[in-house]
Amino acid sequence: MSFDYLGLSDELLSAVKDAGYTEPTPIQKKTIPATLQGRDILGIAQTGTGKTASFTLPLIDILSQGRSRARMPRSLILEPTRELAAQVAESFEKYGKNSKLTCALLIGGTAFTDQVKLLDKGVDVLVATPGRLLDHMERGNVMLNGVEILVVDEADRMLDMGFIPDIERICKMLTKKIQSLFFSATMPPEVKKLTDTFLKDPKEFEVSAPTATAVTIDEHLVQFRGDDKLKRNILRYLLENNDIKNAIIFCNRKKDVKVVNKSLNVHKFSAAELHGDLHQETRTEVLDAFKKGKVKILVASDVAARGLDIPDVDHVFNFDVPSNPEDYIHRIGRTGRAGKKGTAITLASQSDKKYLDGLFKFLDKKIPLLKIPEEVLGGEKKTAKKDNKKEPENQSDKRNKGESKKSGAKEENKSHTNGKPVVGMGDHVPDFLTR
Ligand code: AMP
Predict the structure, then answer these.
(1) Start-end ranges of CATH 3.40.50.300 in the chain?
(2) Alpha carbon of 233 to those of 41, 224, 272, 375, 396: distances in Å?
(3) Topology of the domain comprising 217-363
(4) Residue whose CA lies nearest to ligand 1 atom number 1
(5) Which of 79, 205, 337, 340 has the most ligand 1 atoms within 8 A of CB, as the residue to mutate?
(6) Check: CATH 3.40.50.300 for 3-206?
(7) Ligand 1: nearest atom to the Cα of 21
(8) Whole-prediction pTM value?
(9) What three-state secondary structure class fits 336?
């Protein structure tokens, strides 16, 4: 099916063609016609499914009639993070290049005055993070009574970031007649309550089960016993031994983002860090360098990287198993986007065990194991050679195949004593580590 049958204007179809899209994605096929008919929408879709265009495209056509007034935007798009908001604004530029619509971005980390100037001129599309929008509202810079369409994107992440009360506050200030579109990768009860309250007889679309990962992603799990230093060694081994054009490495903690990035740089990898402690300007620069291929590896925290639209990321690494299993879906969704092939590798030591069990339960499946050579794991060289012929099944394999916890634990202890789990930089340093 081509875009021609969705009811979009010729100007928009031409912009879509210029963007290089030949066929609408499933969420676009479902959302675009219903939005053009004026329906409220509840789209359950993860990032990478083309959901941004699914609301941006019809919005451009709907808003093409009418004019904006000073400080009274005609549509409002709420995004959980600054980067995501910036990306949506970019999408508007890309798809709306044949229209006269104006778009303003209200995000933290940039000056109020420039944002006020834009609001004063009147904007058709306002893309904002909840905090900055409320700041502007309190200062009287923006009024929401002219809003005809509201989009709440990544509602589940809004919940994670504590934005639900802000969203409720904002929604209550809108007139009852507006059309509302809500998107979320998952539907926790708090989000369900929000959509039940604010959506009117919505058309509901689910493009994949909330716990499903994209079929274009090859998932792997590396299980080992050892500390974070060994984890970094394994990570470097994987970076060296996979055909990687670019990669995102996720860490659970900001502290680890910094350590992993520093370590990669020491080992001469082209890496940069992205986390909430950085100034907005630096975050934008880092992202830009990564998008342009000047930096090959982005080490990121979940919040900073949420929803980033970076085309062609071919590898995602989870330096830790995410504490929130839903983050696994979001993280690995950075690769395998829009039908492209991607690889996601998760590293799990014994300290990730608790989260890993939760993840397996959430996914309702096991992740295929990836074996790492003994010398990388810090085993004896002799053992490694012998093992080359026929590697004994490692303990984690056994655990994954459903052996009792008790026997797994016993085996683990054995391997711990035998295998010198922590890689010293002495005898057993693989070649690439010495670079
Ligand atoms: P999103 O889920 O909105 O973050 O989009 C993921 C990626 O898919 C972005 O890089 C979009 O530019 C791209 N994309 C969106 N719609 C299509 C389409 N119909 N065909 C191919 N790529 C698309």
Answers:
(1) 3-206, 217-363
(2) 46, 12, 18, 11, 19
(3) Rossmann fold (3.40.50)
(4) 50
(5) 337
(6) yes
(7) 20
(8) 0.62
(9) coil
